[in-house]
Write a structure and sequence with these properties.
Blueprint: H1 14-24, H2 30-37, H3 44-55, H4 60-68, H5 74-86, H6 91-98, H7 102-112
Helix pairs in contact: 6-7
């Protein structure tokens, strides 16, 4: 048995999942998705973009269900807050753009700014 302890990343391999979805179900969208899928590692924001490109905007019921189950890691939070700073947006505008609660944005700003 190897003495080295390997860190297991318990996150799904989104790149493979989305490649398979595009190739099998939506081959016409392969060209649009290719720049994102060619990245070495996908961020949370990349995954959200891919999901929106492939499946488009769904109905309100599905959108609200999916919104409740989103998870943002620190890297994604910093990217979102950086986007806010670069584009000179307020909490309300940023919340509308990323479909996140204004309270969540305020909490992130308190914690990480």
């Amino acid at each position: 048995m190897d003495k080295k302890i390997q860190k297991l990343d318990m996150q799904p391999y989104y790149k493979k999942i989305y490649c398979d979805i595009v190739l099998k179900k939506y081959p016409e969208k392969e060209e649009i998705c290719r720049p994102l899928l060619d990245k070495k590692e996908l961020t949370v924001l990349d995954i959200l973009k891919l999901n929106n490109i492939i499946f488009g905007d769904s109905n309100k019921e599905n959108l609200s269900f999916n919104q409740k189950h989103r998870f943002y890691n620190k890297q994604a939070i910093f990217e979102i807050l950086d986007y806010m700073r670069k584009n000179n947006l307020n909490n309300n505008q940023l919340a509308h753009h990323f479909k996140i609660s204004r309270n969540t944005i305020s909490k992130w700003k308190r914690l990480y700014y």
